[in-house]
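Q: What residues go here?
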C-alpha cells in the first residue's frame, strides 16, 4: 500500500492565521518516516504553492472565493495525479475548504466514490446560508449534485462540477451544526452519526453501520475527510473552531483503523491543524501527534500490534 503526500498550506477558507503551517508541523512530527517504518511506501509530492490572489473581495458575502477557487483547482490536479500514480492521496491542510479540490480530484481519477466526513461541523453551508462567509464551512455544498442549483456562479470556480451524491456521504462526530445545515442534511436524507449516535452505539458499531451503508450496493473507493476538530479539544485544541464534547483519541483512531481494514480507503484529508492556536507548546504537540497517529492508523498501524 502506498501514500502520496500532498502538502496544502492554505488558510483563506477561514480567518485565523497559522493553519497554513499545518503541513510543516505534521511533516516535522515525522509522518513520512513513521509511515515508512510501519511498512508503507511513501511518495512525497511536496507542498503546493498558492500564489497570493489580489483584489479578492467578498462575493455575495463569501470571503476569499477567488483564492479558494484557484487553490482548489491546483489541489484537484495534484490529487488526480497522485491517484493516477497509484497512491492513496494524503492531503495535509490547511483549512477544510481544501476538501473541494481533494474530493474533486479524487473523483476525476476514480469516477464513483464515497465520502466519510469526520468533523464537529457539517461544512455544508451554501453561499446563501453561510452566516460567516468562511468557505471552510461550505465545501460539501459545492460537491453535492443535489445542491447544484444552490451554488451561484463564482469567480475561479467555473472548473468545478459537483461529483458526489448525498447517498454516498456519511458524517461522523457532528455536534455543532447551523440550523440551515441541519435542514439540508434532513432534506437530502444524509446519513449522520452525530456525537449522540457515537455515545449511544459506540464507535465500533458506528463504523460497522457506516461501512455497511456505504458498501450496501457496490464497493466504492472511500475518501476520508478528517477535520482535527472532530477530536475533543482536550486532546486537539490547536484548531480554529474547537467544540467541546468531541471524540476521544481512541475513538478517533478506531475510525481510521476500521476504514483501513475495509481496504477501500483511497484518499485522506487531514485538515484544520493550527499550531498558532494551542494554549501552550504541549497542547500544540498533542494536536500534531494526534493528527499523525490518525494518519498512521489509516495506513495500517494497529494498536494491538
Ligand atoms: N458552521 C460554521 C463553522 C464552520 C467550521 C468549519 B470546519 O469544520 O472546517 O472547521 C460556524 C458558523 N456558526 C454560526 C453561528 C455562530 C457560531 C458559528 C461556519 O462558519 O459556517
Ligand atoms: Mn470542523
Ligand atoms: Mn471541517
Ligand atoms: Mn476548524
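A:
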Amino acid at each position: 500500500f502506498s501514500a502520496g503526500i500532498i502538502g496544502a498550506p492554505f488558510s483563506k477558507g477561514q480567518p485565523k492565521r497559522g493553519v497554513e503551517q499545518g503541513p510543516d508541523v505534521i511533516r516535522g512530527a515525522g509522518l513520512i518516516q513513521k509511515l515508512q517504518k510501519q511498512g508503507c511506501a511513501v511518495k512525497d509530492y511536496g507542498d503546493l504553492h498558492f500564489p497570493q490572489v489580489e483584489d479578492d473581495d467578498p462575493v455575495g458575502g463569501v470571503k476569499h472565493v477567488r483564492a479558494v477557487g484557484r487553490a482548489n483547482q491546483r489541489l484537484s490536479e495534484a490529487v488526480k495525479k497522485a491517484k493516477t500514480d497509484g497512491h492513496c492521496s494524503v492531503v495535509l491542510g490547511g483549512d477544510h475548504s481544501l476538501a473541494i479540490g481533494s474530493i474533486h480530484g479524487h473523483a476525476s481519477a476514480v469516477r464513483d466514490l464515497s465520502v466519510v466526513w469526520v468533523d464537529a461541523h457539517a461544512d455544508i453551508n451554501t453561499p446563501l446560508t453561510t452566516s460567516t462567509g468562511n468557505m471552510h464551512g461550505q465545501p460539501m455544498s459545492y460537491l453535492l449534485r443535489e445542491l447544484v442549483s444552490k451554488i451561484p456562479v463564482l469567480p475561479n470556480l467555473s472548473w468545478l462540477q459537483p461529483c458526489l451524491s448525498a447517498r454516498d456521504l456519511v458524517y461522523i462526530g457532528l455536534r455543532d451544526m447551523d440550523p440551515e445545515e441541519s435542514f439540508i442534511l434532513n432534506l437530502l436524507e444524509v446519513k449522520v452519526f452525530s456525537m449522540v449516535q457515537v455515545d449511544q452505539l459506540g464507535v465500533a458499531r458506528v463504523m460497522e453501520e457506516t461501512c455497511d451503508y456505504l458498501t450496501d450496493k457496490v464497493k466504492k473507493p472511500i475518501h476520508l475527510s478528517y477535520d482535527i476538530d472532530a477530536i475533543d479539544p482536550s486532546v486537539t485544541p490547536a484548531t480554529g473552531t474547537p467544540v467541546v464534547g468531541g471524540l476521544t483519541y481512541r475513538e478517533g483512531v478506531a475510525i481510521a483503523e476500521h476504514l483501513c481494514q475495509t481496504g477501500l480507503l483511497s484518499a485522506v484529508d487531514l485538515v484544520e491543524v493550527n499550531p498558532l492556536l494551542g494554549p501552550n507548546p504541549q497542547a500544540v504537540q498533542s494536536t500534531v501527534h494526534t493528527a499523525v497517529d490518525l494518519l498512521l492508523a489509516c495506513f495500517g498501524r494497529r494498536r494491538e500490534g
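A: Context that may help when evaluating the design: The radius of gyration is 17 Å. The first helix runs from residue 22 to 28.
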